[in-house]
């Protein structure tokens, strides 16, 4: 539950498709939709009637958003979409993604479940924003610090591009708390 609140706070919750900070089609709590097929798997509904969306409607919303210029705010994309992802579907998808990411983390870091709660949330935030490959290949010093349970090093090695400074700061605070450093 604490991880869910953390991710909802930092990813935001948007029930229609939009382009994220790097211009990728996204929905919900930062759910990347790399192609139209990814949208087909979601329980999208028509905004005007509440009826389940057809596959053609899902593809059309994805294509419409994908064709847009990158904007500062997700709200800028609502007008080019017709479909929404209900809150219950967002909650289910978030839970499923967290389970999947935790499995990836447990495979890479066998002691993951024994780490301090704040460290677990911080590592989950890293994998959530970067994906497993992005974290494991793109942040070798961070992963080495996790292997050594050197939470202070994780605080300095976990700084990411393409996330807000506030999110990076809060991530650092999580690891410093795990290290027992007064924050």
List keywords for this structure.
single chain; elongated; 5 strands; about 55% helix; 3-stranded antiparallel beta sheet; about 180 residues; mainly alpha
Low-confidence stretches: none
Going by helix content, strand content and strand pairing, the class is: mainly alpha
Mean pLDDT: 95
**Could you state the order of secondary-structure elements as H and E?**
HEEEHEHEHHHHH
Percent of residues in helices: 40-55%
Strand order of the largest sheet: 1-2-3
- Choose one word for the global shape: elongated
Distance from first to last alpha carbon: 22 Å
DSSP summary, beta strand count: 5
Number of helices: 8
The largest sheet is: 3 strands, antiparallel
The radius of gyration is: 18 Å
% residues in beta strands = 5-15%
Fold and architecture overview:
The protein is mostly helical and 183 residues long. It is 55% helix and 9% strand. The chain has helices at 2-11, 36-40, 55-66, 87-108, 117-138, 140-147, 151-157, 165-178, and strands at residues 14-19, 25-28, 31-32, 45-46, 83-84. The strands form two sheets. It has a three-stranded antiparallel sheet with strand order 1-2-3. A hairpin with a 5-residue loop joins strand 1 (14-19) and strand 2. Helix 1 packs across helix 5 (117-138) and helix 4 (87-108) packs across helix 5 (117-138). The radius of gyration is 18 Å and the shape is elongated. It starts with a helix and ends in a 5-residue tail after the last helix. The model has no long low-confidence stretch (mean pLDDT 95).
Give the structure's gist in a few sentences:
The chain is mostly helical and 183 residues long. The chain has helices at residues 2-11, 36-40, 55-66, 87-108, 117-138, 140-147, 151-157, 165-178, and strands spanning 14-19, 25-28, 31-32, 45-46, 83-84.
